[in-house]
Specification:
Elements: H1 2-23, E1 35-40, E2 45-50, E3 55-60, E4 70-73, E5 79-83, E6 88-93, E7 98-104, E8 108-114, E9 120-127, E10 130-135, E11 141-146, E12 157-163, E13 167-172, E14 177-182, E15 190-194, E16 201-206, E17 212-217, E18 223-227, E19 235-238, E20 261-263, E21 266-270, E22 276-281, E23 287-292, E24 297-302, E25 308-313, E26 321-325, E27 330-335, E28 341-346, E29 352-357, E30 362-367, E31 373-378, E32 382-387
Antiparallel strand pairs: 1-2, 1-32, 2-3, 4-5, 5-6, 6-7, 8-9, 9-10, 10-11, 12-13, 13-14, 14-15, 16-17, 17-18, 18-19, 20-21, 21-22, 22-23, 24-25, 25-26, 26-27, 28-29, 29-30, 30-31
């Protein structure tokens, strides 16, 4: 009888626990590998979306000024760190769909990166210029690195990118410099500085293997390249004078080098102030071709296969997307999926591309094989789209 009573009590207790769990509003158990996050500029919020079912799972607000925002993923792809224009860093749990931490660390900021070991968040700042390092778990400040040139004058920091070995590379806009920061000891980081790289570097990127850091130059036609495997060679110019003899058009939106395309032996890069995509041989970094396009490119992005490159454009051509065939270097498709197409993001294996249509308040999902629209989802003034495959890639 005693044994039966104990079994009955255990059964009742177990049923009570199950009922209690059933009453909790906990999200269903899922992994993060099929998820993504979309910036909603107007509402200071992000959407959590799912690739396979092409649906919205959650919306998280209270993230501040997202008029120019980007994010990076934690190593396990559970958390995203959203960098807002107001200098805020917001840590969002995309599985629970909630904000878990937020710090306001600068007056004007445009992005950041995460270290190769996932322990350090780096923020790049306009005001005050410089880079700050934070603990990825707690967002506690670890180091503050002012961006001062050789004369002690401050600069805006742009083009921050992660490199192997817990290093970061970034550019100083006014100073015309590239710095490499070693954050192996994050409270006492070390710096290597490369001066006189060109006028007004406005953005930068790291190659997917972390070897090359490239800064685009706003003040002149050309790019600055640092080979991090051979840093003693310093910074050299590539695609120098690409617009020589041509009239540069007014620049309505700065192109983003972070959305460059590496396909086969070629790198595809946007030309500032010109209706062209520049093609460089990524072995010699000499110009191999240039592809005339519909407007001034903003993002130039390769499908994961590398077979085709997709391009979107600045105003007044920002209702258009073009597709370049890599073997022929020709535009093979022109699409008009919506007004204000600001950002593009491919699914991990490239079966679809998601586009943000800011002026139509929607997301557009397009099949990359047929170019047919698969789905449209409502979104409040959407901009950046970031899928969780980025968690395992450098330079993202």
């Amino acid at each position: 009888m005693m044994a039966q009573a104990k079994r009955l009590a255990a059964s009742i207790l177990g049923a009570g626990v199950l009922l209690a769990l059933g009453g909790c509003a906990t999200p269903p158990l899922r992994g993060s590998g099929d998820l993504g996050v979309v910036i909603e500029r107007a509402s200071g919020s992000v959407q959590v979306v799912e690739n396979s079912r092409m649906q919205t799972l959650a919306r998280v607000g209270g993230l501040g000024d997202l008029s120019h925002a980007s994010l990076v993923y934690s190593r396990d792809a559970r958390y995203v760190y959203v960098f807002g224009r107001d200098g805020g860093i917001s840590k969002v749990d995309i599985l629970a769909g909630k904000l878990v931490a937020r710090v306001l660390q600068a007056g004007n900021s445009i992005g950041g990166a995460i270290s190769s070991d996932g322990r350090i968040i780096a923020a790049q700042n306009y005001q005050p210029g410089g880079v700050k390092l934070f603990d990825a778990d707690t967002l506690a400040l670890l180091a503050d690195i002012p961006a001062l040139d050789g004369h002690g004058q401050p600069s805006k920091v742009v083009g921050l990118a992660d490199l192997p070995g817990n290093r970061f590379a970034f550019s100083l806009f006014e100073a015309g410099e590239i710095w490499v920061l070693d954050a192996s000891q994050p409270r006492t980081p070390q710096l290597d500085k490369y001066r006189n790289v060109g006028r007004n570097p406005y953005d930068g990127l790291a190659s997917s293997d972390g070897r090359y850091y490239i800064a685009g130059l706003y003040g002149e036609d050309g790019l600055a390249l640092l080979d991090t495997w051979q840093p003693e060679q310093g910074v050299r110019r590539i695609l120098d004078g690409y617009g020589q003899g041509q009239d540069k058009q007014p620049v309505y939106k700065m192109p983003h080098l972070r959305g460059w395309a590496l396909a086969g032996n070629y790198a595809f890069l946007p030309a500032i102030g010109h209706h062209a995509v520049l093609v460089a041989d990524n072995r010699s970094w000499q110009e191999a071709a240039r592809v005339p396009v519909y407007g001034q490119p903003v993002f130039v992005m390769a499908e994961p296969s590398g077979r085709r490159v997709w391009v979107n454009f600045a105003f007044p051509h920002n209702d258009t997307v073009q597709v370049i065939d890599v073997p022929t270097m020709q535009v093979i498709k022109t699409l008009k999926p919506g007004r204000g197409i600001l950002h593009m993001e491919f699914t991990a294996r490239g079966d679809a591309v998601w586009l943000s249509s800011r002026d139509d308040d929607k997301l557009v999902v397009i099949d990359t094989r047929s170019f047919q629209t698969l789905r449209e989802l409502p979104a409040a003034n959407p901009s950046g789209i970031f899928f969780s495959w980025r968690a395992s890639r450098m330079g993202m």
